[in-house]
Design a protein that fits this description.
211 residues; two-stranded antiparallel sheet; Cation transport ATPase; signal
Amino acid sequence: MTAVSRPFRLPALLAAAALLLAGCVMPATGPAGDYRQRVVTAAKVAVAAPTGYCIEPASVVERADSAVLLLGRCAGDATQDPAVLTASVGAAGSAAGLDVASGGREFAAFFRSDRGRAALSRRGRAGDVTVHQALGIPGAFLLRFEDRGARGATMQPESWRAILTLRGRLVSLSVTGVAGQGGLDRAEGRALLEAFVRAVQRANPAGKPAG
């Protein structure tokens, strides 16, 4: 699991952008494909939004054959819970040696270690993070954790994160509720993350290029 920590550490710039995005609603104007799905990296990995959520085009950062994107509730869709979603796509080979389907125990042990909790922390501090739940679903591994270093921010301290592999790349998807706007309870957060995982999996069928 030596290659796991870095792809899951969101850079400080992304964390700041997420705080700004937390109070916003994504635009629903322009071509629907611009907001519902975005193909990134040389491997053409597609990041697709779950129903009612949109990609913020200005948030997309592609660098060194990796990518980070932010998503939020689409404008005009007040039926969806206010939340900040992120997608991180690692560089070529970042998923080498990782088996999400059968490596659940190893993943759980890693993310409960000091190194793993530091990787989940917005401040890079293992002591800030408590992992409450770790479980597998078809094609992905899920984590529910609390980042106490996030208190006072516009996002809830509790988040859900999914780990999956696509086209040989390590992919991280996360869901965090917006503080002061009702937030997400445990069941809502998990349901939204699983919907996000399914949307991304459908957008990347095995053996077919995304598009």
